C-alpha cells in the first residue's frame, strides 16, 4: 500500500511543484518586490523600503477612487446578477415550453470573452449611438445619459455590462439548485395545501442559501479582479476622472506602462489580500462540508 | 555565456546562408504609424530603402491604438526581453533619453552624425534635445508643432472674428460664440493626453518659454503663482468645450470643426493632415493664445538598440531617415516639417510652409504631452492629474499633485 | 400545480423580456457585422442590413493594406495554436491529479487540494511580474509556447477540480478489484479510470478551451508582437483605434466569438457543468 501511495504522490508531484513555484513562489516574489524601491526600468541599487509603496497608495487619489469604484461595482454587480439569475432560474424551472431555447439564450453571454462583449457594449453605451438612440425611438428620452463617458456614471455602466455577461452564471447555479430539490417535497407541500409562495418562502429559498453563498463568493472575487471588461469598454485610461478605473487596471498601467514595478506589485498584493479574505474561509468551509458528507 | 556564444555562431552561420541565397538581410522597423498619411509616409521611405538596398527584407512592425501608448508598452517588453527591433520610433527628448539611453539600451550614433554632417543641418535647439552625455542617440524624422489654434474660417468670418492672441481675447470670443450656440472650443480627451496637450499650451502661454522650460529642471516653482494661474485659465477654458469631450478622440474633436459645430481647436499640427484627409479646406490656423513666437515642438526619432539583430541594415535606415531625400519624401505625407533646415518648401502645403518659417524664427520649447519635456512616468503622472482636474476643476488639489509629481520624478525637492 | 392564465402570461412575458435583454448586444453584433460599408452609420445601428455582405468579415480577417490596418486572421490562427496544445496538456495533468486526489488520498492530500484550489482564485496580477521575468529568463517570453505554459500551469487547479469531482463518482470497488487483479496505480488509471473518463474530459476540454480562447490578461502581458498575439488582444487593439470602421470591429468581435459560441450552442450541457464545477462543489 505504501508503495502505491508513493507512486500516486509521484504522479501529482509535477503539478504540485508547478503550483508551488508559479503561485506561491511568485506571490512571495511579488511581495518582496513590493517592499523594495524597484520603481524604474533599472534601479542602480535595489533597496528594501518597508511599506513605503503601500503607504503611498493610500495617499494616492487614483487608487482611492479605484477602491471606491470596486465597492460601487460590487454593490451593483452582485445583487444585480443574483436577482436576475434567480428570476431567470425560477422562470425556466416553472415547467414552460421551449425551456431549452430560453436557457440557451440566457446563458449565451457566458461563452463570450469580455473583450468581445466589451467591444459591443462600448458602442451600445456610446452617448451618440446604441442605447441612447433606442431610448429616443421608444420615447424614453429621459433615460439617455453619457454612460461610461460621464464621470458621475463610469463604473456603473461597466457594472451593467458585467451583469449582462455574468448573470447567466448565477442563473445556472440556481437552476442546478432548483433541480436538486426533491420532487417529493413539492408533492408533500401540495398535500399540506401550501401555496406556491409559501413553498418558495419556506422550502425553496432556504434550500438555495448555500447556492447563494457560492454565487456571492464567486461574483465577489470577480468584482475584485475585473479588468478586461473595463479595458474594452472604457479604455486603458479608465475613463474620465478615473470613473471606470479599477485596481487591476491601475496595477497593469503602473507596472507595464509607467515601469513602477514595486508600486504595481503593492497594488496586486492588496488585491490578493482582499480576494483571500473572501475565498479562504469559503474554501475551507466547503471542503470541510464535503468531508463530513 | 558559452551558450550565448554558440547562439551567436549559429546566427552568423544562418546569416551567411542567407547571403548565399541572395538575401542580404532584413530590417525590422517598429512604429505606431498604422494609418493615413503617416503610414503612407513610412511606406514611401520603405520604397526608397528597397531601391537603395535591394534584397533587404523589411518587416513593418506596427502596433495600433492609444496614440502610441500600446506601441510603447510592446516596445518596452521587447527591449527588456532582449528582443529589440532594429530601429524604433520614439519621441525626441526625455522619452528616449530617460527610458532607453540612461539605462544603457542604445548605441550612440556620433559616427552617423559626423559622416552625414547632421550637426550642421539640424537646428541647435533640436540637437540639444537629441544629445545626452555628449553623444547623439537618435535621428529625427520630422518636427510637429503642438501649440496651434485651428479655427473654422466660415464661423470666424460670419461673426467678424480674428484668431485670439491673448487669453482675454480668447475668452471674449468664446463668450460671444457660446451665446450664438456654437461650441467655442473643441476637445476630444478620450485619451487624456489631449487635455494635457491643451494644458501644456496654457502653461507656455502663462509662464512664457523660459518659465515653462524651468518646470522641467526644477527652476520654476510648481507651487507658485504661475502654475496656479495656468490651472485657473485652463479651468475657465473648460467651460467652453463640447459636453461630450470624454467620448471623443482627438480626430473626432476635429470633426466638430469640419462640421461647423465648433469654432476653435487647440491641437498639434497632425490635425492639419486630418483636415486634408477628410477633404476639408475651410480651416485657418494661428499660434495658440499666449503662444505667439513660441514653437512647442515634438519629433519622432529613430534610434539603434544595442542588441539590434541587424545593425548594418538599421544604420542604412537611419541614414535614409536623416537625408534630404528621406525627409522630403516622408514629411509632406506625414504632415510635418523637416527636422533639417534645408528642405524644399515648395513640396509642402500652405500650413507647413507657414510652420517652416516660424520654425526658423520662433523660440523652441519641448512638448510635455509628447515626451520631449519630461520622462514617461512624469508625463503619466501629469495625465493622471489632468484626468481628475478636467472633471473636478479643483485648482489647489491639482497644483499640489503636480508639485508632488515633480518630486516623484526626482527633479524637485520636497 | 395548475396556473392561472394571468400567471402564465406573466411568466412568458418575463421570459421574452429577459430574452430581449440578453439578445440586444448579440443583435447589434450580428446585424452590423453583416452590413455593407455604405450602410454603416452610428444612427443606423439598430436597422437591419439592406444588403447582406460578408465584406466586413473579409476586411476584419485580412486587414486593409491601404490604411495599414492589420487583419485578425493571423491572430485567429495564433489562438488556435495556443488553445489546442494548452488544452491537451492541462486536461492531461488535471486528469492525473484528479485521479490521485479522488482515489489515493494520503496524509496531507486535503491540504494539497486546498493549496491547489486557492490557485484558481488568485488575482493573476499578483504573479504577473515574476511570470514575465521567468519567461524572459527561459526565453519563452513573447511567444506562443510561453503563453501555453502560463495557461497550462494556471489551468491545473480547475482541471484538477473537475476531474477529482468526476472521478469521485466512480465506485471504489472498481479500482479495488483491479488492484486485486494485480494492477498498480498506473494500471488502475490506464484500465479502469481512462476508459470511463469521456464525460469528465469533455467538460474539462470545453471549460479550458473557453477560458484560454477568451483570455486577455495573459495574452496582453506575455505576447508583445502583433504577429503572435491571440485574437482577444488583437481585437482590443483593433477596436481601440478609432480609424477602423465599427462594422469591421463588430465583424472582428464576431470572429473572435465564433469558436466558443459554436461550442456553447452545440455542447451547452457540458459547458454548464464546467461552469458549476468552478464553484467548488460539483
> Any low-confidence stretches of chain C, pLDDT <50, length ≥5?
none
Major sheet characteristics of chain C: 2 strands, antiparallel
Rg calculated over all Cα atoms of chain C: 23 Å
Average pLDDT score of chain C: 87
Task: State the oligomer.
Answer: heterotrimer
Work out the helix count of chain A: 12
Tally of domains of chain C: 2
Strand content of chain A: under 5%
Shape of chain C: globular
**What's the β-strand tally of chain A?**
0
CATH hierarchy class name of the largest domain in chain C: Mainly Alpha
Q: Percent range for helical residues of chain C?
A: over 70%
Q: What is the CATH superfamily label of chain A?
A: MetI-like
Write down the CATH topology of chain A. MetI-like fold
How many β-strands of chain C, per DSSP? 2
Summarize the biggest pleated sheet of chain A: none
Structure description:
The complex is a heterotrimer of chains A (293), B (414) and C (282). Chain A is an all-alpha fold and 293 residues long. Chain A is 72% helix and 0% strand. Chain A is built from twelve helices and no strands. In chain A, helix 1 runs antiparallel to helix 12, helix 3 runs parallel beside helix 7 and helix 9 packs antiparallel against helix 12 (261-292). By secondary structure, chain B is of the alpha/beta class. In chain B, 51% of the residues lie in helices and 15% in strands. In chain B, strands 2-1-3-13-6 form a five-stranded mixed beta sheet, with helices on both faces. A four-stranded mixed beta sheet of chain B has the order 9-10-8-11. In chain B, strand 4 (131-132) and strand 5 form a beta hairpin. In chain B, helix 2 (36-52) packs antiparallel against helix 15 (324-334). Chain B is globular. By secondary structure, chain C is mainly α. In chain C, 71% of the residues lie in helices and 1% in strands. Chain C is built from twelve helices and two strands. Chain C has helices at residues 5-33, 55-62, 73-103, 109-121, 125-137, 144-167, 172-180, 185-193, 198-214, 217-222, 231-240, 246-277; strands at 63-64, 69-70. In chain C, helix 4 crosses helix 6 (144-167). Chains A and C meet through helix 1, helix 3, helix 4, helix 5 and helix 6 of A and helix 1, helix 3, helix 4, helix 5 and helix 6 of C.
Amino acid at each position: 500500500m505504501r508503495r502505491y501511495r508513493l507512486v500516486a504522490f509521484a504522479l501529482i508531484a509535477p503539478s504540485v511543484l508547478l503550483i508551488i513555484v508559479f503561485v506561491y513562489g511568485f506571490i512571495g516574489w511579488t511581495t518582496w518586490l513590493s517592499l523594495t524601491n524597484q520603481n524604474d526600468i533599472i534601479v542602480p541599487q535595489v533597496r528594501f523600503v518597508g511599506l513605503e509603496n503601500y503607504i503611498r497608495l493610500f495617499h494616492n487619489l487614483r487608487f482611492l477612487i479605484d477602491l471606491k469604484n470596486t465597492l460601487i461595482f460590487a454593490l451593483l454587480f452582485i445583487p444585480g446578477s443574483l436577482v436576475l439569475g434567480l428570476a431567470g432560474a425560477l422562470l425556466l424551472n416553472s415547467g414552460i415550453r421551449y425551456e431549452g431555447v430560453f436557457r440557451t439564450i440566457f446563458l449565451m453571454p457566458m461563452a463570450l470573452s469580455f473583450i468581445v462583449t466589451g467591444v459591443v457594449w462600448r458602442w451600445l453605451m456610446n452617448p451618440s449611438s446604441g442605447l441612447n438612440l433606442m431610448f429616443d425611438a421608444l420615447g424614453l428620452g429621459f433615460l439617455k445619459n453619457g454612460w461610461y463617458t460621464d464621470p458621475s456614471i463610469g463604473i456603473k455602466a461597466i457594472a451593467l455590462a458585467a451583469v449582462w455577461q455574468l448573470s447567466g452564471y448565477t442563473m445556472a447555479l440556481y437552476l442546478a439548485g432548483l433541480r436538486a430539490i426533491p420532487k417529493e417535497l413539492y408533492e408533500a407541500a401540495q398535500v399540506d395545501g401550501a401555496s406556491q409562495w409559501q413553498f418558495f418562502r419556506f422550502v425553496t429559498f432556504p434550500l438555495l442559501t448555500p447556492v447563494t453563498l457560492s454565487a456571492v463568493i464567486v461574483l465577489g472575487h470577480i468584482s475584485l479582479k475585473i479588468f478586461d471588461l473595463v479595458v474594452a469598454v472604457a479604455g486603458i485610461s479608465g475613463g474620465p476622472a478615473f470613473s471606470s478605473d479599477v485596481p487591476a487596471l491601475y496595477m497593469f498601467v503602473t507596472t507595464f506602462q509607467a515601469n513602477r514595478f514595486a508600486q504595481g506589485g503593492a497594488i496586486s498584493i492588496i488585491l490578493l489580500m482582499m480576494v483571500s479574505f473572501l475565498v479562504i474561509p469559503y474554501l475551507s468551509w466547503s471542503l470541510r462540508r464535503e468531508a463530513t458528507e | 555565456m558559452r551558450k550565448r556564444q554558440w547562439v551567436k555562431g549559429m546566427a552568423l552561420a544562418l546569416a551567411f546562408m542567407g547571403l548565399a541565397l541572395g538575401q542580404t538581410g532584413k530590417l525590422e522597423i517598429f512604429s505606431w504609424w498604422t494609418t493615413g498619411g503617416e503610414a503612407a509616409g513610412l511606406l514611401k521611405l520603405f520604397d526608397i530603402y528597397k531601391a537603395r538596398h535591394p534584397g533587404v527584407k523589411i518587416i513593418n512592425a506596427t502596433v495600433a491604438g492609444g496614440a502610441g501608448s500600446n506601441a510603447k508598452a510592446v516596445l518596452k517588453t521587447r527591449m527588456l526581453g532582449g528582443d529589440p527591433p532594429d530601429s524604433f520610433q520614439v519621441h525626441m527628448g526625455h522619452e528616449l533619453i530617460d527610458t532607453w539611453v540612461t539605462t544603457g539600451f542604445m548605441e550612440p550614433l556620433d559616427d552617423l552624425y559626423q559622416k552625414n554632417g547632421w550637426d550642421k543641418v539640424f537646428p541647435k535647439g533640436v540637437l540639444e534635445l537629441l544629445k545626452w552625455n555628449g553623444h547623439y542617440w537618435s535621428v529625427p524624422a520630422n518636427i510637429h508643432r503642438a501649440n496651434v489654434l485651428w479655427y473654422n474660417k466660415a464661423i470666424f468670418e460670419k461673426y467678424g472674428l480674428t484668431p485670439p492672441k491673448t487669453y482675454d481675447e480668447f475668452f471674449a470670443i468664446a463668450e460671444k460664440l457660446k451665446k450664438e450656440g456654437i461650441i467655442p472650443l473643441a476637445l476630444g480627451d478620450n485619451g487624456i493626453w489631449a487635455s494635457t496637450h491643451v494644458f501644456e499650451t496654457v502653461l507656455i502661454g502663462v509662464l512664457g518659454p523660459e518659465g515653462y522650460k524651468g518646470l522641467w529642471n526644477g527652476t520654476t516653482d510648481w507651487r507658485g503663482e504661475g502654475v496656479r494661474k495656468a490651472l485657473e485659465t485652463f479651468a475657465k477654458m473648460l467651460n467652453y468645450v463640447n459636453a461630450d469631450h470624454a467620448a471623443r478622440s482627438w480626430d473626432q474633436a476635429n470633426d466638430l470643426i469640419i462640421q461647423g459645430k465648433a469654432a476653435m481647436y487647440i491641437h498639434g499640427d497632425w490635425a492639419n493632415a486630418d483636415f486634408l484627409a477628410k477633404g476639408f479646406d475651410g480651416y485657418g490656423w494661428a499660434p495658440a493664445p499666449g503662444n505667439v513666437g513660441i514653437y512647442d515642438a515634438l519629433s519622432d526619432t529613430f534610434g539603434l538598440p544595442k542588441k539590434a539583430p541587424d545593425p548594418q541594415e538599421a544604420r542604412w535606415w537611419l541614414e535614409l531617415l536623416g537625408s534630404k531625400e528621406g525627409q522630403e519624401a516622408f514629411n509632406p505625407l506625414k504632415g510635418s516639417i523637416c527636422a533639417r533646415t534645408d528642405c524644399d518648401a515648395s513640396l509642402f502645403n500652405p500650413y507647413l510652409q507657414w510652420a517652416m518659417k516660424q520654425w526658423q524664427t520662433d523660440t523652441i520649447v519641448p512638448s510635455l504631452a509628447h515626451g520631449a519635456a519630461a520622462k514617461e512616468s512624469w508625463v503619466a503622472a501629469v495625465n493622471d492629474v489632468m484626468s481628475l482636474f478636467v472633471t473636478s476643476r479643483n485648482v489647489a488639489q491639482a497644483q499640489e499633485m503636480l508639485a508632488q509629481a515633480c518630486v516623484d520624478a526626482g527633479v524637485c525637492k520636497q | 400545480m395548475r396556473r392561472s392564465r394571468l400567471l402564465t402570461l406573466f411568466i412568458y412575458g418575463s421570459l421574452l423580456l429577459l430574452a430581449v435583454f440578453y439578445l440586444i448586444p448579440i443583435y447589434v453584433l450580428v446585424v452590423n457585422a453583416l452590413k455593407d460599408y455604405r450602410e454603416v452609420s452610428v444612427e443606423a445601428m439598430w436597422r437591419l442590413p439592406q444588403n447582406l455582405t460578408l465584406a466586413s468579415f473579409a476586411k476584419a480577417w485580412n486587414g486593409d493594406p491601404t490604411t495599414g490596418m492589420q487583419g485578425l486572421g493571423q491572430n485567429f490562427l495564433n489562438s488556435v495554436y495556443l488553445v489546442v496544445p494548452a488544452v491537451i496538456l492541462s486536461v492531461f495533468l488535471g486528469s492525473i491529479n484528479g485521479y490521485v486526489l479522488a482515489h489515493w488520498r494520503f496524509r496531507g492530500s486535503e491540504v494539497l487540494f486546498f493549496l491547489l484550489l486557492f490557485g484558481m482564485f488568485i488575482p493573476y496580477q499578483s504573479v504577473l511580474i515574476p511570470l514575465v521575468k521567468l519567461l524572459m529568463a527561459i526565453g519563452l517570453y513573447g511567444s506562443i509556447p510561453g503563453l501555453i505554459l502560463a495557461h497550462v500551469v494556471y489551468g491545473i487547479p480547475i482541471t484538477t477540480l473537475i476531474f477529482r469531482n468526476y472521478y469521485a463518482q466512480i465506485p471504489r470497488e472498481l479500482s479495488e478489484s483491479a488492484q486485486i487483479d494485480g494492477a498498480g496505480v498506473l494500471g488502475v488509471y490506464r484500465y479502469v479510470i481512462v476508459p470511463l473518463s469521456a464525460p469528465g474530459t469533455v467538460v474539462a476540454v470545453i471549460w479550458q478551451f473557453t477560458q484560454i480562447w477568451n483570455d486577455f490578461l495573459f495574452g496582453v502581458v506575455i505576447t508583445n508582437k502583433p504577429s503572435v498575439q491571440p485574437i482577444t488582444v488583437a481585437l482590443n487593439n483593433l477596436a481601440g483605434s478609432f480609424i477602423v470602421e465599427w462594422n469591421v470591429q463588430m465583424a472582428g468581435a464576431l470572429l473572435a466569438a465564433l469558436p466558443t459560441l459554436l461550442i456553447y450552442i452545440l455542447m451547452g450541457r457540458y459547458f454548464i457543468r464546467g461552469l458549476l464545477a468552478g464553484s467548488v462543489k460539483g
